[in-house]
Amino acid sequence: LILLKTKFTVPEIANELKLNYNALRLFIKRNISEKEYSLIKVIDKSLPDKSRELTPELAYLIGVIYGDGYFGENAIRLGTKDKDFADYFINVGKKWCDKLPLIYLATKNNKPYYECYLSFKAAFLFVKNIVGERKEIPDRILNANEEITINFIKGFTDSEGTIIVKNNACTLKVYNKNKKILAQIKEMMLKVGFDNKKLYIVPNNNCKNGIVYALRICYKDQIRLFYEKIGFTINRKQIKLERFFNNISIGGDVGMASIV
To answer: Rounded to two decimals, what is the model's pTM?
Structure first.
C-alpha cells in the first residue's frame, strides 16, 4: 500500500515483491476504499493511445507472439530458458504499453526457465485482434517501414532462430510449421536487403503435428547482413555470430558458409 502511494502500478509492485498479480490485487481491494480501488482499475485497464500505433516495440512483441510467445488468460506470455530474452521482452513490453510484465523463475528439464506475463486485458485484446489465428502475418506488418520490419523479424528469430557453427561454416535457420509465414518472413527480409536467390525454405523434420520447415541462410554475406541489421537479443546466439565473423574474413568470398 505504501508503494501505491509512490505511484508504482500494481504490476510493478507484484514484480518487485515477487507476488502473484491477482493475489495482490485482491489484497489491495480488501484494504482500500472502493473509490481508491476504482481509480486503480481505470489506470490498469486502459491501453494508451500511443500503444495503438505500430511502433518498433509492438512489432517486436508481435514477432515473439508468432514464435515462442503465446496468449494466456487476458495476458501476453513468453516462456524461455534465456534470461536475457525474458528481460528484453519485459523491457519492450513496459516501453510499449506502460505496464511492467511479470517474470517468474521456474524449472524445466532441471534447468532455470523464465515465465513472463503481460497481464493486461486491453493489451491482450489489442494484439490478439491484430494477429488473429496467426495463420499469416497481417498486412499492417508486411507493409510497414524498415524499422518495423526489422523489429518484427528480430522478435520472430529470437524465438525461432538458431545458429549452427562448425569449423569455418555457419548456417542460420528459422523454424516454423507454417510454410506461408516463413515465406512472408523471407519477403520481409528481401525488403531490407537480403538476396532472394540465397534464402531457402526447406522441410527440416517431421513432428507429430506435421512437417517443420526451415528458412535457411547459408551464404556468408547474407549471414553478415543478418548480424549487422537484425541480430539476436539472446547472447548465446549473438555470440556465435560474433565469433564466426571474428574468426573468418569473408573478404570477396560470398560463397556458401555451410550446407546443413
So the answer is: 0.81
